[in-house]
Amino acid sequence: MLGVIQAIVEGLMVGGIYALMALSLTLIFGVSNILNFAHGDLVVFGSIMSYWLFMSLKMDPLIAIIPTFLVSLILGVATYYGVIKYAVKASVLDQIVITFGLVLILEDSMALIFGREYMILNPPYSSVHYTLGLVTISLVKLLSFGAAVLITLGLIFVLNKTYLGLAMKAVSQDSEMASLMGIDISKTYLLSWTLGVGIASVSGTLLALVFPFNAYSGISYVLKSFSIVALGGLGSIVGSIVGGILLGLAETATELYASRVVAEVISYLVLVFVLAVKPTGLFGTREA
Fold it and tell me: I want to staple 43 with a disulfide (CB 3.0 to 4.6 A). Which of 106, 185, 204, 266 is the partner?
């Protein structure tokens, strides 16, 4: 029983970070309908950027979130004008080819510059744990979870209370009507992509505090992100949050009784089961 409670707490904390990672994918898909297969590599970019800042400048990873986010915004603008703007109006197949090409560019560039070895962020407090009743909580995971929650709340605020967020919502619902109302569609696509890249990179920093990674870890993260988004429902913010937490719980529960490798497989089996019962996801709606 003690192990189950511990697994639930661990799953909630990891799931909160997964939710943030999936939210950035939801943001991009919801606004521009781009199937971004490079999403996982953008997450890894954030992991590597924060790792470099920590190792070279001794910058605390939680502080490194700020420069990582700013640099990733530059990357977002560069990749949009260099690649993504051509994918916005392309077919699904063309989007897959275009974003997969971006995968190869990002992965090989990161491997060339930073190597292929596995890395993990180990700040001085990484070994600190607190015992609360029957549960032992890692300070690193607690801080990562707290940061993920705050950033998620900030993103929800931006989407619901700012002109940019309302413009993104309008474009996601009906781009033609939004254009008639004076919203610059191309600029909205650019901003949603750039913000999505920034959030993805920040989630990479938080994940690097929990899991080891290398330049080619993007495949794992993109599969998890697509699984969460499909599980929660395409374009659903609430669905991404719930889906991320469910995936985190599924992984930690399975790891308790088996291994990390098995946990990766079981997580996707849970996804398949839910989609078999409700193909539109938990919070998705079937199009007319």
Answer: 204
